[in-house]
Amino acid sequence: MTLTFALLAGLVLGGAFAAVTCRNRVHAGLFLAACLVGLALVFLRLGAEFLGFIQILVYVGAVAVLIVFAILLTRDAESPRDRLANAPASGILIALALFALLAWAISTGKFPAAPAETAAVAPALSVKALGDRLFREYVLPLQAVGLLLTAALIGAAVIALPAPKPDPLDDSDASGPAS
Amino acid sequence: MESLDQIFVTAKHAVLGLLPAAWQPWASAVISVGAILAVFPLLFALTTVVERKALGRMQNRPGPNRVGPFGFLQFAADGIKSLTKEDIVPRAADPIVHFLAPLVVVIPPVLAFAVLPVGRHMVALDLPETGLLFFLMVGTAVELGVFMAGWSSHNKYSLLGAMRALAQLLSYEIPLILSAITVVMLSGSLSLVTLVERQAEVHGGFLLGWNLFTPWGLAGALLFFTAAVAEANRSPFDLPEAESEIVAGYFTEYSGFKFALFFLGEYLGLFAISGLGITLFLGGWLPPFSFLGWVPSWIWFFAKLGALMMVFIWLRGTLPRLRMDQLMQFAWQFLLPMSLVNLFVAGLWHFTASWPLLARWLLGAAVLAVPWMLYARGFAARHPRRTYRYVT
Amino acid sequence: MSPLHLHLLLAAALFAIGLAGALTRRHAILVLIGIELMLNAANLNLLAFWRYGPNPEPLNGPIFALFTIAIAAAEAAVGLALIIAIHRRYRTTRVEDIRRLRG
Predict the structure, then answer these.
(1) Is the separation of the CB atoms in B179 and B224 below 8 Å?
(2) What subunits make at least 3 CB pairs under 8 angstroms with B?
(3) pTM here?
(4) Residue of A163, B169, B174, B180 with fewest CB within 10 Å of its CB?
(5) CB contact under 8 A, B170 and A62
């Protein structure tokens, strides 16, 4: 048990670390995909089969592809290597402090755990029951998520459409991003 | 003929019985994987030769006929050629990503064969809750490999071909998944084994229980197989990799063994998705008529697969290639709305279960025909026939 | 160190790495990668508690995680569309250059 968990944790954390520190942007996107695959395997190990497959279908198959596509579409003549922001040290310090706080809370917290005999086997996750719950008790969040996805789809399409050609005689908006 | 039907299953159990109990799960997996790796690449080899001969005959020429009897050992010659060609990696290419891309394109289709029920009790991995989802998941994993191949070659045409191929794969995935969902909806399970067994009943005394013989099944099968041809990047949807258009698209810079891997991955993907279509709509390993049940189930599966391959080869030799914008328009403005209407018709079929068969069929066909006619007329109105002027 | 603790630590580490990425990167899309890592860490937490905690109402964990995945996908789509539109208008994707609305 612990060997597979250690390997998967290594894949997840290694992929995440590489995604966050890699200078080459496309490599960062691909490392993110590797990290998400590792996470999906962790989900499978936890017994959430449906969630693990959905994770790969949605995250690796769609979100990661979208990210690398966007990295490609926003390339410039500038070098493909990213530099760190103006004050990287404070960001890293904040993240480290947060991790220390969370680790302390996790190790000293008393979580109500399941009794040992039921913790040994994963709770059953049948897709039929999932669908049943979604359409009976959680039908309102389901419809809200449907509305959200529709709005996101239409909004993303409208935002990413090429702007109409500006009138050459019109100079009302300022040029450049800095005010 | 029960013994011939289960001959592979009994052989596998015999081999497993010889091994100590601790090794049996691993040995079972190894035997199943070995069987898949032995059968499907051989099928790929046979299909490449049959395709070239069939295309040749359709174009009024003999096709390859030098190597072996009537040219049927051509695949061996091609294989030896690919393996011995020099592997050229462009100097500006990204070496690691360039190396990994063929693997990411080949491994998912091989994984997909694990959940296909090839015969009665003959499925390598029976996932009782999520079989179909596993298949669709490995289908989407190929997209990242396509992008990796196109980007790492550091070549404008490769990148363009990869973008086009990605857009095509993403667009045609939705009608594919929606048509598969109609089957899941009416059979009540995502497990492929259960989906085949649900098609074993016979409606109205003579009409087979195959999903093809229901109105939503017929429309769904047509939608599914159209989207499957597009997912496999085959003609008439092969703009991203056509030689006369973009050299070879995203695998332009690959030579030798890596090119052979891409080729293998493409055909294995085609087999996998045809296998899924057969499982969903054509009754899997079920015989067409119950009095033909004495023929082993795996023979029926491979016969249906072979017939589908011939249909795809026929399509390749007959239809002209679709342009990129025509391709996208076809997916988003025709296949997607028709898949949604198909979902509705499947629901109607379920709720009219007490009606006579003919009435249900007519209702389903009518509800499907109206949007289809509107779209067909809509297309014709939007793209009027061109008039040509000739200089005389 | 029960399995629950191990999974929670993994999620916390993933969250911290995502946060570090979101705070220190210059390119907007790489910041988005950090945000996606944080969302996935939250998902891992949800599923770890579903698996190893007491479950008076089973299936709450996976349902919550499913909604999180859907919302994260929607947010990634809109965020990337915004970044592409900004790049098209201002020809830059560096987060410190996009400050027109800064007070």
Answers:
(1) yes
(2) A
(3) 0.89
(4) A163
(5) yes
